[in-house]
Amino acid sequence: MQAEKMVDSYDGFHIYARKDTSENAKAVVVVVHGLCEHQGRYNYLTGKLNEHNFSVYRFDHRGHGKSDGERAYLKDFNCLTDDTNFIVDLAEKENPRLPVFLIGHSMGGFTVACYGAKYPGKVNGLVLSGALTNDVAGAFKQIPDGLDPHKTFPNELTDNICRDPKVCKAYADDPLRCHVITAGLVYAMQDGVRWLGENAGKFKDPALLMHGECDKIVSYKDSCKFFTMIGSQDKQLKIYGKCYHEIMNEYCRDEVISDVIRWIENRIQR
Questions:
Q1: Residue 115 contacts by C-beta under 8 Å, 6 or more apart in sequence?
Q2: Which residue of 119, 127, 155, 246 sits 20 to 30 Å from the alpha carbon of 173, by its own alpha carbon?
Q3: How far is it between the farthest Cα atoms of the chain?
Q4: Taking a C-beta distance cutoff of 8 angstroms, is the pair 244, 137 a contact?
Q5: CB of 254 within 8 A of CB of 262?
């Protein structure tokens, strides 16, 4: 069953949420999308999760997709984690007997990383794909300090998201993607990376960190470093050779998604 609607988040802000439920669900997965994109780009992943009897909850970040807000703007990185927590609360309320897992990509991976540190013990496991956790590549260091937070810069991610040109073209033509990034979002993310560096040890839940070896947007070294920083006793790190940023859209996407599903299933059985 599919349902979608605008919901009032923890502070009353209007965000777009969607759920694709499985009749015989054995767990719930909350999917958290990345920078300048939206939850609709995770239809393939959602379909695969549904096939394996996982219900899926998704939402658009503030200023992204169908949610309200200035495009690609953030006042505070905590909005990301707290909106995610609102959706987790909703999923838990509607599925009180099911375990809940988080999957986050890129900025969504950053969000899930912060979630693990801010809300330890609340979900059953967290999957991070191409997560910005240390900004080893310096993606956000190119923006100078002191700019008007509403100043915009062009979104130049398109050609580097994936090796598959069809995926890149679909992204470029997507009417819901953000064409700009604001300085305010960059500053919020910089603050968040610093906070995460100071609090990563509080992240103690089961974790699967995944990254493309040839990621040109977020270095795979972010995940390697974050793997050593978190306090989880149950943690795995997988680097996919030759893959770019969006490993779940790469030519080997079925292998990647199968790895995620297998990892979640193993944690349900424990």
A1: 81, 84, 85, 102, 104, 123, 126
A2: 127
A3: 52
A4: no
A5: no
- φ, ψ of residue 145 in degrees (nearest 5): -70, 160
Of the candidates 124, 126, 97, the one whose C-alpha atom is nearest the C-alpha of residue 114 is 126
Distance CA 123, CA 129 (A): 17
Name the β-bridge partners of 5: 17
What CA–CA distance (Å, rounded) separates 112 from 116? 6
Cβ-based neighbour number of residue 230 at 10 Å: 23
Q: Which residue type occupies 97?
A: R
Pick from 249, 219, 260: nearest CA to 128 = 260
Q: 10 Å Cβ neighbour count for 254?
A: 12
Give the integer Cα–Cα distance in Å for 143 and 151: 11
**Angle between helix 107-118 and helix 183-199 axes, rounded to 10 deg:** 40
End-to-end CA distance of the chain: 28
Domains of the chain: 2-268 (3.40.50.1820)
Quote the pTM value.
0.98
Q: Which residue bears the tokens 């969006």?
A: 246
Q: E strand or H helix at 235, and its extent?
A: strand 235-240
